Amino acid sequence: MAQSGKLILVVIIMFSSLLMYVQPTTYAAQDEQWEKIKERGELRVGLSADYAPYEFEHNVDGKRKYDGIDIDLAKKIAKDNNLKLKIVNMQFDSLLGAIKTGKIDIIISGMTPTPEREKEVDFSNPYMTVTQKMIIKKSEDDKLQKLDDFANKKIGVQKQTQQETIAKNEIDNANIQSLTRVPEVIMSLKSGKVSGMVIEGPVAEAYLKQNPDLKFAEGVKFEEGEKNTAIAVPKNSPELMKHLNATIKDVKDNNLIADYKDNAAEAMKKDDGNFFTKYGNFFLKGIQNTILISIVGVVLGAILGSVLALFKLSKVKPLRWLASAYIEFLRGTPLLVQVFLVYFGSTAVLGWNLSALICGMIALVINCSAYIAEIIRAGINAVDKGQMEAARSLGLSYGQTMKSVILPQAIKNILPALGNEFVTVIKESSIVSVIGVSEIMFNAQVVQGASFDPFTPLLVAAVLYFILTFTLSRIMYFFEGRLKVSD
Ligand code: ARG
């Protein structure tokens, strides 16, 4: 009882000191934004590459490439200012957080300036204007013609976008289904989960071309039909803003957006070949990274986990508390939250600029270590107590007993459970796709965007995960058999 009371206290203290540390950082040095970029020699542009013709990833001669209007604009900004360009691809609803925590310098992602967003960031002059449209299934064409026909219906939108607001404001009693990525919304529409989708004109056209079962709801006109698109910039960065607006002016004066649109249309043309020749290398890359991060997660997690297990079994109370607090906290919070905490926390709290891959690995290692610590502790505890007593009474020291009596038996309990943990990690690692780690799930999403086919890539991802986990569990089965024989 007293024990668990102390444990709760330790968790609370750890948590509140963390919170104190995360107090909203004020970016006093924000006008130095431009200086920082210049010094780095690299402009980090955040975007969500699910948005052809603005930004999408596709295959050129077996290599992956970003293309689209926003990409061309970003390239020009970099070139005009003698900077290298770094594209940081993430979910649309993570972009504002990323710019505020300093993960990216600017957002070029078909973003509309809105009053809410203007509280968080400044916007450049607009570089485009787009119309808001509704798309539906062809088969529902006779039922869904005017805006009124959508009253009380389910409407799909991309999460945290202007389209979400428009649907809320302009459709009577709309039942809004917000999903993170455009292809997911398209899939909901195709499968009849929503009746219509509010979407920007050029993006709609790109998807309609590849999905003949969808069409525009011609009769629907939104009041907020026209919207600007601009670059989001951290607040109070006048110098950076000046340079962005200079490029935008140049783009407008020379009507370059028209060229960018042509480039995008060219890049969007279906490349030859079947699904696998076109997108196979996306999935291959994904498999490599999934295996890599899972191995790192389990191996480093096991090392850290062993230390924690020893702490937990130790006679020193503070070590026990520390280990318990750590383990309880990590097992009691979702991996998804931990991934975001590491990703944004590493920059916002610690000021480190770590890549998504490294952040994803760190989160997995930390998470695994807690589970593995428990596996090891349980494995050791499962060895009959009498063994320790017997060995000690024969004159062996505690250390000797552990090493030559307890641990060899514990290993037999631990190894199978570690194998299961490995299988779990392979599946769970899909979560790090949210911060843009290029593993299987992330690549499936990229292919969804590139192929305008929301379903097949998911199916392929499922099969790949299954092959990995099934093979692994067969291998484990084999070794477990060997362990038993060695008894
Ligand atoms: N223009 C809309 C907005 O700013 C949607 C932009 C979505 N962009 C994207 N890359 N998915 O809310």
Question: Mind explaining what this structure looks like?
Answer:
The protein is α/β, with parallel strands linked by helices. It folds into three domains: 26-126 and 229-267, 3-Layer(aba) Sandwich (D-Maltodextrin-Binding Protein, domain 2), CATH 3.40.190.10; 128-228, D-Maltodextrin-Binding Protein, domain 2; 275-486, MetI-like fold, CATH 1.10.3720.10. 59% of the residues lie in helices and 13% in strands. It has helices at 2-21, 33-40, 69-80, 95-100, 115-120, 162-170, 182-190, 201-210, 238-253, 256-268, 275-313, 317-331, 335-348, 356-381, 385-393, 398-428, 440-451, 456-486; strands spanning 42-47, 50-51, 55-60, 63-67, 84-89, 106-107, 121-123, 128-137, 154-158, 175-179, 196-200, 214-216, 226-229, 232-234. The strands form four sheets. Strands 8, 9, 10, 11, 12 and 13 form a six-stranded mixed sheet that branches. A three-stranded parallel sheet has the order 5-1-6. A three-stranded antiparallel sheet has the order 2-3-4, sandwiched between helices. Strand 9, helix 6 (162-170) and strand 10 (175-179) form a beta-alpha-beta unit. Helix 3 (69-80) packs across helix 9 (238-253), helix 12 (317-331) packs across helix 14 and helix 17 packs antiparallel against helix 18 (456-486). It starts with a helix and ends with a helix. The structure holds arginine (ARG).
Topology:
Layout: H1 2-21, H2 33-40, E1 42-47, E2 50-51, E3 55-60, E4 63-67, H3 69-80, E5 84-89, H4 95-100, E6 106-107, H5 115-120, E7 121-123, E8 128-137, E9 154-158, H6 162-170, E10 175-179, H7 182-190, E11 196-200, H8 201-210, E12 214-216, E13 226-229, E14 232-234, H9 238-253, H10 256-268, H11 275-313, H12 317-331, H13 335-348, H14 356-381, H15 385-393, H16 398-428, H17 440-451, H18 456-486
Parallel strand pairs: 1-5, 1-6, 9-10, 9-11
Antiparallel strand pairs: 2-3, 3-4, 7-14, 8-11, 8-12, 8-13
Arginine is lined by residues 47-48, 50-51, 54-55, 92, 109-112, 158, 161-162, 182, 200.
